[in-house]
Amino acid sequence: xxxxxxxxxxxxxxxxxxxxxxxxxxxxxxxxxxxxxxxxxxxxxxxxxxxxxxxxxxxxxxxxxxxxxxxxxxxxxxxxxxxxxxxxxxxxxxxxxxxxxxxxxxxxxxxxxxxxxxxxxxxxxxxxxxxxxxxxxxxxxxxxxxxxxxxxxxxxxxxxxxxxxxxxxxxxxxxxxxxxxxxxxxxxxxxxxxxxxxxxxxxxxxxxxxxxxxxxxxxxxxxxxxxxxxxxxxxxxxxxxxxxxxxxxxxxxxxxxxxxxxxxxxxxxxxxxxxxxxxxxxxxxxxxxxxxxxxxxxxxxxxxxxxxxxxxxxxxxxxxxxxxxxxxxxxxxxxxxxxxxxxxxxxxxxxxxxxxxxxxxxxxxxxxxxxxxxxxxxxxxxxxxxxxxxxxxxxxxxx
Length: 399
Hints:
By secondary structure, this protein is an alpha/beta fold. The chain is built from 15 helices and 15 strands. Helix 1 (13-29) links the parallel strand 1 (5-10) and strand 2.
């Protein structure tokens, strides 16, 4: 009996994380299924970290996949060879089709279209890009889902209900982002009695500038009136030296000779005038678990934070990802779990003080985040459906 082959096709860095999380669950449930990962944007670092084989054609683009955030972004990627990359990926998918039994497409309908039009195998679609809380899908997107997807997993219940009304076979079983947060139990070098502010600058090139904005908020929080700790997330996709160099130009200095290894990653400390910020690369689940509140300019990271019941204060960044429009959309998506304020260190600091000093407000924001993101466990439920669809039935015992 032939071993089934599954292609996980995703078009975005956050989408890679979600796809890798589901694929890992499939591998645990059915080790015989052959899994192949096909990242359309970037090189698929999340798949590689999960020890999943990456196939296909990859090339990094200047915008990191954010081509729809303004004509300038599209032009940058076009100059870098986006059209040629797309042609090569389509040709590769056609050639690979014969070796594939099914596809799990993760991302927006472009990922679904690539799978349905060029691989032409049974496809499950994990729709991560749109929510009824911000704006729903267009009629032609529903048409693509009906045509190409045997089943669709929506990112929240409201969106699943909207899909079902349009005859799309959809459901909501949980947000996989909440399953992609391994927690190792590290204290990250902080005393257990400290209240902790988490700092999320994002995972793309904008993060270096965002990190400086967050460090200036730390300085504005110096007079909080109680001892407080600061944890800054440094995504695995970022380099340590450019971040430290940028912080040094703003008066910060590194206290450690080099990063200290911890479970799931590493850490080091930046200091300025008695203030200390522990920078953590990897171990993101531990960072969010340890934080009491988050100041975030991240997409997926902010969503995971509110899903753990951590209030988020955010503001528009300067780069291509966390634009004013993106910040407003995220606020609509996450509702009362997020406080969106002006890009001013004093204003941000005052909002953090307000939330931490008001237990009722804090509890309301924590509840709102958990309600919007849903409970963990979605990855396992999706994996069980995938295995049921694609794993051949066990042979009957002879009598």
